[in-house]
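Anyone up for a design puzzle?
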C-alpha cells in the first residue's frame, strides 16, 4: 500500500509512510478512538504489512467487503476517510397504511407521462420508496398494472349471488351433475343471462378461449375466413384427442374480496 499521498512536503515517501503508520498505531491504542475507526486503522496497518484482504478480514473480524471499503476510503481521503464521521444512509420509509394506499392509488388511478402503466422501478422512484416495497404491495393486493386497462367491474345488482352460484357449481357440483360452460357470439348479447355483466372471466370456457387464442389464432397467418375456420377445426380435433381438464380453485369469498378491494380503489360504491 502506498502512503505518500497522505502528507505533502519535502520528506521522502518512506518518511511520510512511517509517520502515517505511527499515527494509525496511536489511533488504534487511544481509548478515545471509536471502535469502528480503530478497526479500520488496523485494516490499513495490516494491508501495509502485505497481509491479504482475506487474512485481514479474519484477523479483524470484519467482512471482506468492509475491508475493501476501508482501504478504498483511505486511498481516497487518508486517515480522514477511515476516522472521520461516516455518512449515514437515509432511513428507508416504513410501509404504513397511508403509504400502502398511496402506492395502490398511484398504481391504479394514474399513469406515467411516458408509458401506459407503471413499472415497479418507475413508481418506486416517483414515490421515494424501494422497488421491493412496491412489489410487496402489488403482490398483497394482486395488482397487475399491465393488465388493469381493460378490467371492468360488474354493475349487476345480483353479482354476489351469481358469483356464489357459479363458483359453487365449479367447486361442489351436485352428484351426477354435468356443468356446461358456453358463451355467446361476439356482438350478440343475451338478455337473460346467468353470468353477471362484465364478468366473462367467471365462465370457464373463457380459459379455453384464451388457450386457443395463444396457441393458434394470435400469431397464425389466415388470408381468409375459410382458412381460419379450417385451422380452428384442425386444432379442435387435435385438442379432443388428448383433452386436459381445467380445475377451478378460487372460492367465491376470495373472488368477492378482490372485487370489493378493486371497487374501493376505483371509488365505486358497493
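Challenge accepted. My sequence:
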Amino acid at each position: 500500500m502506498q502512503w505518500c499521498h497522505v502528507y505533502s512536503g519535502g520528506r521522502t515517501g518512506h518518511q511520510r509512510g512511517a509517520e502515517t503508520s505511527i499515527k494509525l498505531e496511536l489511533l488504534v491504542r487511544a481509548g478515545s478512538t471509536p471502535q469502528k475507526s480503530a478497526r479500520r486503522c488496523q485494516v490499513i496497518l495490516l494491508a501495509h504489512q502485505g497481509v491479504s484482504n482475506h487474512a485481514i478480514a479474519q484477523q479483524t473480524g470484519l467482512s471482506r467487503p468492509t475491508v475493501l471499503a476501508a482501504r478504498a476510503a483511505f486511498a481516497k481521503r487518508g486517515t480522514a476517510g477511515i476516522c472521520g464521521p461516516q455518512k449515514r444512509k437515509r432511513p428507508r420509509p416504513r410501509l404504513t397504511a397511508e403509504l400502502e394506499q398511496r402506492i395502490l392509488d398511484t398504481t391504479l388511478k394514474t399513469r406515467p407521462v411516458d408509458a401506459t402503466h407503471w413499472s415497479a422501478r418507475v413508481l418506486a422512484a416517483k414515490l421515494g420508496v424501494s422497488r421491493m416495497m412496491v412489489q410487496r404491495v402489488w403482490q398483497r393486493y394482486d395488482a397487475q398494472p399491465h393488465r388493469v386497462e381493460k378490467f371492468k367491474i360488474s354493475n349487476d345488482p345480483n353479482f354476489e349471488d351469481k358469483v356464489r352460484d357459479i363458483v359453487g357449481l365449479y367447486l361442489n357440483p351436485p352428484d351426477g351433475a354435468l356443468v356446461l360452460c358456453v358463451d355467446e357470439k361476439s356482438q350478440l348479447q343475451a338478455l337473460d343471462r346467468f353470468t353477471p355483466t362484465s364478468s366473462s372471466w367467471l365462465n370457464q370456457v373463457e380459459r379455453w378461449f384464451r388457450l386457443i387464442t395463444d396457441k393458434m389464432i394470435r400469431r397464425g397467418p389466415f388470408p381468409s375466413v375459410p382458412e381460419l375456420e379450417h385451422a380452428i377445426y384442425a386444432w379442435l380435433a387435435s385438442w379432443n384427442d388428448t383433452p386436459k381438464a381445467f380445475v377451478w380453485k378460487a372460492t367465491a369469498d376470495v373472488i368477492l374480496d378482490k372485487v370489493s378491494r378493486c371497487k374501493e380503489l376505483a371509488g365505486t360504491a358497493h
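A detail worth pointing out: Residues 1-10, 187-191 have pLDDT under 50 and may be disordered.
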